[in-house]
Write a structure and sequence with these properties.
By secondary structure, the protein is mainly α. The protein contains eleven helices and no strands.
Length: about 260
């Protein structure tokens, strides 16, 4: 949904004049009817392309389907518990087998509950809302990915750094939280060496760094979203004040017009 909404907003031109006009949120449409048609076409296109890739993979593998287990099933079932910068490996090492399916469903399915609130709270407010919603979606997927890497976090942080106005609104908190996340990423190889290389520690050494990365990353995303919402409210307040001042000036000029004509 965030990708389709961002593509739809770029495909459909935005009226810049409406940005300077104050409109109550209650009067704005929750969802554009034309977007539903575009979303259906977008989804069908993605499915067709995915089917083409699967067909090409089957053709290259000679009809064998072993790659499905390596690419999709093992990721969903969290079969490989090799330590990484995520937290899935440690939790699924500790969880009982009879609760494994429940945790798999919970950790994979809870991402779907963020789509509608993100769109209603942030994404539907153009012109910056669609891009901000896509950035938040990237950051959420990075935080709750089964097998994340440092490059995933680098992509997420790079996307958060793009809108400079939001960074100015966040002030020093963004720098502090980003520094904490980068500290965890930099210390992760050291903890890997201490535990797996020198055998001078245990799994908690590595898991502590994954918690540092996850906690600072989540707080960084929350602070960024709060700054984006504050910026949007400030822009709407400025539009509201501008409308009041312009309306008062128009009324004053309209009333003062006849008097100026009488003086002539």
């Amino acid at each position: 949904l965030p990708c389709a909404w961002l593509a739809y907003c770029h495909w459909r031109p935005y009226d810049a004049a409406s940005e300077a006009t104050y409109t109550r949120s209650k009067k704005q449409a929750m969802l554009d009817g034309k977007f539903l048609v575009y979303l259906a076409i977008f989804a069908v296109t993605v499915l067709v392309l995915f089917g083409c890739l699967m067909g090409a993979s089957l053709a290259m593998m000679g009809g064998e389907t072993h790659f499905l287990n390596a690419c999709f099933i093992s990721v969903l079932r969290v079969q490989d518990l090799t330590p990484n910068v995520g937290f899935f490996w440690y939790l699924f090492c500790e969880v009982f087998d009879r609760f494994r399916a429940l945790f798999q469903f919970s950790f994979h399915g809870h991402l779907l509950f963020y789509i509608a609130p993100m769109h209603l709270r942030l994404g539907r407010h153009r012109p910056l809302g669609p891009f901000m919603q896509a950035v938040v979606a990237i950051a959420l997927v990075t935080q709750f990915k089964t097998y994340p890497t440092a490059s995933d976090h680098a992509l997420s942080i790079s996307a958060l750094l793009i809108p400079g106005e939001v960074l100015k609104e966040s002030e020093t908190r963004f720098v502090f939280l980003m520094g904490g996340q980068l500290f965890g990423l930099c210390m992760f190889p050291t903890m890997v060496t201490v535990w797996l290389g020198r055998n001078a520690g245990n799994a908690n050494f590595l898991y502590n760094m994954t918690l540092v990365i996850a906690i600072f990353g989540c707080y960084l995303l929350v602070d960024w979203m709060q700054a984006a919402i504050r910026l949007r409210k400030r822009q709407r307040l400025s539009c509201f004040c501008r409308g009041i001042v312009e309306g008062a000036l128009d009324d004053a000029l309209a009333k003062g017009g006849p008097r100026r004509s009488d003086l002539k």
